[in-house]
């Protein structure tokens, strides 16, 4: 997960989630983030994607609760409204 509204933002955190798994990430402040995702499966090519920026709100009156789902089915991918990227781009600044 990267902070910022553009592709040049810095690494905010890294999560490793196995198939059918889940994880929780807490955000201390309001800001924009975007996801870089690496999805791999035995005997299938690895897929790298970058999602569009999203804003997480944290304030005195409450906070956002965000849920992300990601799936790949028979090489059709849903890159969270983003785009497919190369392995080199995925690993940049990691």
Keywords:
mainly beta, three-stranded antiparallel sheet, single chain, 94 residues, 10 strands
Strand content: 25-35%
Shape: globular
Distance between the termini: 10 Å
- Order the strands across the largest sheet as they lie in space: 1-2-5
Point out poorly predicted stretches.
Answer: none
Using DSSP, what is the number of strands? Answer: 10
Mean pLDDT value: 76
Helical stretch tally: 1
Class by helix and strand content?
mainly beta
The radius of gyration over CA amounts to 14 Å
What does this structure look like?
The chain is globular. The longest helix has 5 residues, at 87-91. The model has no long low-confidence stretch (mean pLDDT 76). Strand 8 and strand 9 form a beta hairpin. It has one domain (2-91). It has one helix at 87-91; strands at 2-3, 31-34, 36-39, 47-50, 54-56, 58-59, 62-63, 72-73, 76-77, 83-84. With 94 residues, it is mainly beta. The protein contains 1 helix and 10 strands, in the order E-E-E-E-E-E-E-E-E-E-H.
How would you summarize the topology of this molecule?
Blueprint: E1 2-3, E2 31-34, E3 36-39, E4 47-50, E5 54-56, E6 58-59, E7 62-63, E8 72-73, E9 76-77, E10 83-84, H1 87-91
